[in-house]
Fold each of these.
Amino acid sequence: MNHEYEKARLAALESLDILDTSPSEQLDALTKQVQTEFKCKTCLVSLVAEDRQWFKSRQCMDATETPRNISFCTYAIAEEEYLIVPDAKADKIFANNPLVTGETYIRAYAGFILRNKDGYELGTLCLLYDEPKAFSSDNIDTLKQYARITENIIFSEHLQ
C-alpha cells in the first residue's frame, strides 16, 4: 500500500471510533459460530491499526492485540479479498514469524478482508489453526459470507 492510501485507510478506521471498545455480543456470537463450524483453534475480528492489530472479537485468544509487524492480517489486507496460508511453517513469509514459532503456534491461517463503505481495508475475520489446513472453494465462499455479516455488524454498531 502506498503511504497516502495507508493514511486514508487508517483515518477510515479511526473514524469508526471502534478501537479499544468493549466486546460486541453479536460479533462474539458470530466468531463462536465460525469457530465451531470451521473447527478452528481461534477465530478473531482483527482491526489493523498503525502499529498493532486489535481484536474486536476473539475466541480462544487471551491477547487483545499483537504488534502489526508480526501480524498475518497486515498481509491479508494487502490482498484482493483474502489470504489463505495452509501451512505457515512451510511458508517463506511466515515460517520464522514469532506467532508461528512461539506460544501462539499458528500453523494455518485464513483471513477475509473487512472493508468500510468506501472500500478501505480495516481488518479481517480470521481463523487460526494449530495444524495445517486446506480450504475448499465452498469453505472460501462461506467465509466470505461471514466476513460480509461481520462488516454489517461492525457498521450497525459503529455508524460512520
Amino acid sequence: MRGSVLVGAGSVTDVAAARTAIEAGARYVVSPVFKREVAAAMPGCFTPTEILTAWEAGADVVKVFPAGALGPGFIPGLSAPLPHLRLMPTGGVSLDNATEWLRAGAVAVGAGSSLVEAVAAGD
C-alpha cells in the first residue's frame, strides 16, 4: 500500500515480548537475532545459513541485520540460488539508500535510527 505506514515492534528477543507487542497493536514484530521460538515473528539473521534456517522455521520475512555490513548486492546474490526468500534489510538502511535496497529485491526495509533522525530534523 503506497503511502501507508505499518507500526511494529523491533528488537524483540523472546515470545513474551512478542506477545506484549502484538497485544499493544503491533502489526509486525522483528528480532535482531534468530531464535526458533520467535521465528513466527521476523527473526534477524546475517548469514545465508541463518536466513534459510529462519525461513524453514516459519518466518514469512527474514530481517537481514546488520545489512549495512553486507550492502544491497547481498540481496540479489542470495536471491539467485534462493529466490523464494523474502528479505528485509535493517541496520544500515537510510532514507538515502532505501530505494537501492528495494531495487535490489528487498520486500521491505527497516530504517529505525535514520527515520527517527529525519523526524527529529523535521524531514
Amino acid sequence: MAAQLSDTQLQALVKAAVTPVMQQQNIPGLAVAITVDGQPHYFNYGVADQSSGQTVSENTLFEVGSVSKTYTATLGGYAQASGKLDFSAKAGTVWPELRGSAFDNISVLQLGTYSAGGLPLQFPDAADSSDKMLGYFQQWKPTYPAGSHRQYSNPSIGLFGYLAAKSLGQPFDQAMTETLLPKFGLKHTFLSVPASEEKLYAQGYDKNNQAVRVSPGALDAEAYGVKTSAADLLKFVNANLNSAPLEAPLQKAIALTHTGYYSVGDMTQGLGWERYSYPISLERLLAGNSTAMVMEAHKVKWLNPPQPASTDMLLNKTGSTGGFGAYVAFVPAKKVGIVILANKNYPNAERVKIAHGILAELTK
C-alpha cells in the first residue's frame, strides 16, 4: 500500500520537486495530480495564459501529446475485446485500400507497438494531411522485417487507431468522443476543444516563450491530439489502477494495454503504456524515456505468449507538443499514480525525475 502522507507533507513534497524545475525551464504553468488509494490530490502552479494571468487549476485543459496514444490503445483494446478487431489481422485486410502494399505483411498489433518495420517518428511534410496519408502508406517500404525492431512512430500507432475505429464502424473522432471517453466518465477530455470550454484551454509556449498550440496533421487525433485536464487524466489513471467498476470489454481493453508484448532493455512495451519492474532506479527509468528510445530503432525480444500485467510494475507515458509537456506514471501494487501537465515542452528527463522522486516517497 501507499505511504500515508498528510496533505501538508504531500504539498511540501510536490512543491520541492516542481518549483526548481519550473524556474530552470521557464515553465509558465504546471498542474500535478496524484492518486493515493483512489483519492485525488491536486497541486497547481503558475499561469495557464501569460497574457491574461489566468491561473492553473485541476480543470485547466492541456495538450498531452503522445499520452494520447494510451487512449488510442484503449480504443483498440476495446475493439478487440468487443470482437470487432483482431490484433493478429494484417492491416491490409482491415483497410482494403492498403492491399498490395507492405501492410499485407504487417499486423494490427505491430502497428500498435511501433514494430511495423521502421515507420518514421512523423509523417514527411508532403504526406502530413488526411488526404495524403493513404498514398504515403501505399508506397512506403519497410527498413526492417515486420516485428523485428521498435521504431517509435506517430504514423504507426496512428494507423492502429484509425483501423480500430474503422473496425467499430465509426470515424476515429466519433469512436473516441462518443464511444470510449463517456464510458470512463471523462467529460473534460477532447480531441477538439469546444467553444464552451475554450476559456479553460491553456496557452502553450515554445522554447522562445512564443505562444503556440498544436497544428493539424495526418492521424493527429490518434497519435497526439488529446486535450484534457489534470483531474480528468487522473480519473483515467484511476480506471487503469482499478478497472473493476467498468463494463467487461473495457476491463479487457485496459488489460490489453497493460500486457507486455516485447522488451527493449528494461522497458517492456505495452499498448500505449510502457512498463517497468518496480521499484526501478531513476537511471533506468530515464533510459527508457530517453531521446535514443524515441529516435532510434531497437531490436526487440517478443514475449511469447504476451506477458499479462503484474502488480509489481510501473506503467508510464510521456507526451509533448510544440508548447506543452506531459507525463503520467502509476504503480498498481501501491495504488498510486501521478499526472504532470505543463504549458511548455520541457525535457522528458525533468518530468521523469519529478515523478520518480514523488512516487518513491509514496511507495516507501
